[in-house]
Task: structure prediction
Amino acid sequence: MRLPPDPSTVRIPGPWTHRDVSANGIRLHVAELGDGPLVVLLHGFPEFWWSWRHQLPALAEAGFRVAAVDLRGYGDSDKPPRGYDGFTLAGDVAGLIKALGAAKAHVVGHAWGGMLAWTVAAMHPRLVHTVTAVSAPHPLALRRAIRRHPRRQGRASAHVFRSQVPLYPERKLTAHGGAEVTRLISAWAGPKWTVSPEFDEVVRRNREAMLVPGVAHSALEYHRWAVRSQLRSDGRRFAEVVDRRLTVPVLQLHGADDPVMLSSTAADSGQWVGPNSRYRSLPEVGHFPHEEAPHTTSRLITEFLRGAAAQR
Result:
């Protein structure tokens, strides 16, 4: 019988340095590279910090200090039984920025990490220079699209609703060595990336990371809070807190062929963006622009961050 991987296996070597940071009462694992203004990279589901392997060196070379974090419950970060609500997760990122010794950071996130970036900017505006949301509409734009278009965005988000039952979703994610992770990434990616030379390594790494004890359950807790909070007071409070126009510039990068977060949903986030914001659609790209089109994504993020710095 194969033993589950040790959490330290996600500390994949590279030009970056791995370290542990205490933030918001938990330990977070980060991969860090470069010097300069801080850029914090937040991954999505079903991935971990390594999804930013292309952006770490690219942004560091452009003059930034870059920290890609394993979010609460993922990779080699702590996996507490609670804290997968929007308030606590935003507190994790705010605490991380402070723990890294920065007064402010550029916050970049993909999918769930991107919606978290929107949230951090709304809840902790003094800590955020800019927001870059990759494949990530504003949380309220997503909520509105699911309600108004259940056969479109609602169907595209079906995996979130299927995660609400206990135990079975965890078993499905980890069965057969994490085969479900391969299915999800393959279904959500653009077709060109799935036949690229690196794709086999991508699914292998992410399958292994999902098999780390506690990760599957923790990852699904994000989905569970997002749905169940709709009927509770904390969900109403969350909506009130994030329902404000940001005071910082927002870059939205979206794959034109994203089947999970539809382009129409992302484009409907305009009422929450700050001044000098931009929206860029990437043709023939699915749900993972930072991996499917890494050079274009890194270039667009770099140009945006430099432009924001020049405007201050």
